[in-house]
Design brief:
Blueprint: E1 7-9, H1 13-23, H2 29-47, E2 54-59, E3 64-69, E4 75-81, H3 85-94, E5 99-107, E6 114-120, E7 129-133, E8 136-137, H4 141-151, E9 157-161, E10 164-165, H5 167-176, E11 182-184, E12 186-187, E13 190-191, E14 197-198, H6 204-209
Parallel strand pairs: 1-11, 4-5, 4-7, 7-9, 8-10, 9-11, 10-12
Antiparallel strand pairs: 2-3, 5-6, 13-14
Bound molecules: uracil.
Length: 212
């Protein structure tokens, strides 16, 4: 992990190895999806590292003890459609009790600006810790707009989890939401003029869903 409290680069060798396999242009849709699922589980460990623990009394076969437990229901995973869905499945395998929200937002290809078309999140947001998920933090426009919208529901805390980002995406988030830490597997070199990350992995949505 990096020392910057705002950007946590998850440098675990398993995460880095799987990311390399995903970047390869000849990775099939099924292997891309499987790897994203595995990576999401691994990244879930880091992003939930400081989750609140409480103690409950349980009986082991030997005696009664106070044992640590988490309340997964307090967590709301909010996916930025459509590519965020690819991260949800793996995270839910690790935290099956988490609540799930969706925000539909797309980039206008001409302006690269974010346009919202869907918003559904769990009730009682002020009691919940939110993790917003989207594989690619590129221009940052979608993530910045999604988080601004989610903030209106006043959750207890917000983190942002992506697979890949770039200096431009980090800068956009740092300036708009300095209170929302980013968890990522890598910070790539740059954006190209079409808003894609280089070297990147291409269009995450198309690669997850096989739409191209
Ligand atoms: N979205 C993607 O899917 N890929 C990029 O490189 C940038 C944004």
């Amino acid at each position: 992990m990096s020392n910057d409290p705002f950007v946590h680069v998850i440098s675990h060798p398993l995460v880095q190895h799987k990311l390399t396999l995903m970047r390869r242009k000849d990775a099939s849709t099924s292997s891309f999806r499987r790897l994203l699922n595995e990576l999401s589980m691994l990244m879930a460990y880091e992003v939930t590292r400081d989750m609140e623990i409480s103690y409950v009394s349980i009986d082991t076969p030997m005696e009664t003890m106070q044992a640590p437990t988490i309340d997964g229901k307090k967590l709301a995973l909010i996916s930025i459609l459509r590519a965020g869905t690819g991260i949800l499945d793996g995270m839910l395998q690790v935290v099956p009790g988490a609540r799930v929200g969706h925000i539909g937002i797309y980039r206008n290809p001409d302006t690269l600006q974010a346009v919202e078309y869907f918003f559904k999140v769990p009730q009682n947001m002020p009691e919940r810790d939110v993790i917003v998920v989207d594989p690619m933090l590129a221009t940052g426009n979608s993530a910045v707009a999604a988080i601004a919208r989610i903030k209106l529901t006043q959750p207890k805390s917000i983190k942002f989890l992506c697979l890949l980002t770039c200096p431009e995406g980090v800068a956009a988030m740092r300036s708009a939401h300095p209170d929302v830490p980013i968890y990522t597997a890598a910070i790539d070199r740059q954006l190209n003029e079409d808003g894609y990350i280089l070297p990147g992995l291409g269009d995450a949505g198309d690669r997850i869903f096989g739409t191209k």
